[in-house]
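Worked problem 6 (solution included).
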Amino acid sequence: MAEITDVQINRIAFPRPILIVRPETGKPPRSGFHTGPLMTYIRLMSNVPLSHPARHLGLQGASNFRDLGGYPSRDGRHVRWRQIFRSNHLGRLTEADAAAVRQLGVRTALDFRGSEERTAGLCAIAEISVHSLPIEPSVVPALRERWAMGRLTADDALERMRDSYRNYIRRHTPRFRALFDHLLGDHAPLVIHCTAGKDRTGVACALVLAALDVDDDIILGDYLLTNQYFRRDAAAHSELPQDVLEAIGTVHASFLAAALETVREEYGDLEAYLRDGLGIDGAARTTLQRRYLTA
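Solution. The predicted structure is:
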């Protein structure tokens, strides 16, 4: 058994599947997208092979393209590799990128972008079947309005981001429900994406991992990996102040916490949201876990 060491979870690249345990109990924490202190203990699992697929694919035209595989569920299974990917949009893939994605066998894209975003960056791989689950962007238009009025700060931008996450639950639950309909169908290998692959995609993938019974700290860790991999387009929204661009071009634990708080306000808890909001009853959850977790 490898030695247990302290790490900051937002610096974890998850080089291989891990089990997170609390030092006071030696057991994984309960579900709920833990958003308290991010100091956790990582125990490398002794029965996990050292060789495994790469999580981050290093695509030039989609810097945030990565695999959701390998994460452990609470019952000791793992999310299957090379079945569910998450990414920023696929409209700027190079020829080499496209060849790599084809080699992965990706055949379905679940696209959360709004209409203008989709038009500006059509999928570069014609044989991928694209399913639009549109959530129109709201943050940048609101920030532009405040900037024109001379009242925009980085704190304003952070709060606007949190509010957008609240609205994902209040207004766009049907889009996430449609996502799970596709996951329950035979559409994998598939990629979930929006424009940057960090906010709409981040919430979607957090919900997917939660439905697969992955620990909340691991869910948060995957979400925060965007800060390691995503390369923001320097020309995008260049009229806004740099500190505002940095605020909206990264992800923060408080963003995901805002979505979870809204889940609790509207549904009581995450389990009820999965069941009543997203239609994932016991039978559907069993099907999901059978399909996307190792035996």
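Discussion: Confidence is low (pLDDT under 50) at residues 1-31, 34-50.
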